[in-house]
Amino acid sequence: MSPQEQPTPAERALDHMSSAVLLCDDGGRIRYINSAAEVMFGLSARQVTGHRLPANAAPCAITLEDAVIQAVRTGEPYTSREMVLEVGLDRRVTVDLTVTPLSQSEVLLEISDLNRRLRITREQNLINQNQATRHLLRGLAHEIKNPLGGLRGAAQLLERELGDSDLREYTQIIIGEADRLRTLVNGLLGPNSRPQRRETNIHEVLERVRQLVAAEAPPGITIRRDYDPSIPPLIAEPNQLIQATLNILRNALQSLGDSGQITLRTRTQRQFTIADTPHRLVVRVDLIDNGPGIPPDLQERIFYPMVTGRPEGTGLGLSIAQTLVHQHGGLIECWSEPGHTEFTLWLPLEADDDNEG
């Protein structure tokens, strides 16, 4: 169909499908492309009808042409599951690709975007893991705190009875180590109080964190801001968001060493689902650094308590950050490769009392 012609009923039906659909000839030239495919590739039907997909606009063009050639050669339909397609610069989608030869000169391609389903599943797994770990640690921490208090009290009583100041040095070691363990256990327990929420400007939160990080950063670190000033206030406890964001950025600062760049970016997204809960509007906060990246073997576990890539780290910062954001009905995701680590905070722009506490 040329762009000027009125769509047929079949074409109108295809335009309402969520899967991308392309009809190609045996040379890979596009005869029809539906609305979902236009969105996926960032191209209009007017641009591509009668032409191949331009390689610079859709790096996966060669992959799709190869699929057309294979279907024409074999005459058999086939499906490739969970393919990763580069559909634009720095944009990848995981898809199921179904290729069906309709004749010796026509091939139908159906591309189902799995990113949304995979993301929702991954988010739900993150939330379930975080909740299970928190419950386990809370029980364990309470069991540790009781004998720890008795141990500290006994050391204080013993210190009072000792006349030798040299021996008191040992009781001070016991008391000091008991206090250190209590601090660690309190960190495992995380926040105990419900957040006192109010209208909060996310940029005021980020500016406060930026000031704190800038004061700690060496001269070779630059902090870049990329804010969307149109973002409305959200209902949140600002101190908890400051703590969550600060925990992430301090990790970024330590990974960069003496030089590097940190970027704070905000955007909104409509009709967005966090785990199983749909939201009309959410704010997206990206915390990006150009450091060495997180080792692949740690990426699936970085939100677990006591998991850290630094010998001196406690492994509590990201776990606490995830808990604080989850209390606001949100979620933190992470993607990392050498030279680019990106933590994304998703926060609903409407109150969600079910996630408090």
SSE topology:
Blueprint: H1 9-15, E1 20-25, E2 30-33, H2 35-41, H3 45-48, H4 61-74, E3 78-88, E4 91-101, E5 106-113, H5 115-161, H6 165-189, E6 198-200, H7 202-216, E7 220-226, E8 234-236, H8 238-256, E9 259-274, E10 277-289, H9 296-299, H10 317-327, E11 331-337, E12 340-348
Parallel strand pairs: 7-9
Antiparallel strand pairs: 1-2, 1-5, 3-4, 4-5, 6-8, 9-10, 10-12, 11-12
What does this molecule look like?
By secondary structure, the chain is an alpha+beta fold. It starts with 8 loop residues before the first helix and ends in a 9-residue tail after the last strand. The protein is 43% helix and 27% strand. Mean pLDDT is 82; it is low at 353-357. The chain has a five-stranded antiparallel sheet. A five-stranded mixed sheet has the order 7-9-10-12-11. It folds into three domains: 9-113, Beta-Lactamase, CATH 3.30.450; 118-189; 198-355, 2-Layer Sandwich (Heat Shock Protein 90). It has helices at residues 9-15, 35-41, 45-48, 61-74, 115-161, 165-189, 202-216, 238-256, 296-299, 317-327, and strands spanning 20-25, 30-33, 78-88, 91-101, 106-113, 198-200, 220-226, 234-236, 259-274, 277-289, 331-337, 340-348. It is built from ten helices and twelve strands. Helix 5 packs antiparallel against helix 6 (165-189).
